Amino acid sequence: MIDERALCERFPVEWADLMWGLDNGSSASAGDRKVLVSAGIRICEKCPVRAECLADAIVRREQVGIRGGLPLRARRRLRCMASDGGVDMSDGGTKALHGLTRWLKSHQELIEAARDAETADRQAKRRRQRRKERAGMERCVREGFRPTKPPLDRQGELDI
Ligand code: SF4
């Protein structure tokens, strides 16, 4: 989004790409990227054109980066919330953009709600993944790291 009031426009491009998540091939470590993206999100929260920026990304279905402090999944969630709230985005153009911007300005708390819900989903997914890994490790330990036999009805499939 090009707007002279946009806070991200004040950063050198290589920094902005890291902070708002557009950089895929940088040599920055995962830890550094995480810190920079978090800083980018905080800056978005103070940006005077946050609602316009978010509306633009949502209406255009922008697939990458952080916009208005929200990653893609949270933007999708916010789009659904806006749609449920009666915002008509069917034209995908100026009317949708203006309607959604107005709605976002009067429902700022839902921007944070969409992000919090997305964060909670992500954390729950990580917890499930960790539980699965732990269960796998425990099974390996129980079985003495021996490869398990395939079930009887599938043993023939492996005899190639
Ligand atoms: S909300 Fe964030 S990404 Fe959007 S214009 Fe402002 S600083 Fe840039």
From TrEMBL:
Region of interest: Disordered: 114-160
Comp. bias (Basic and acidic residues): 114-123, 134-160
InterPro entries noted in UniProt: 4FE4S_WBL
4Fe-4S Wbl-type domain mapped to chain residues: 7-77
Chain segments annotated as transmembrane: none
Basic residues composition-biased segments: 124-133
Name of the protein in question: Transcription regulator WhiB superfamily protein
Organism of this sequence: Bifidobacterium tsurumiense
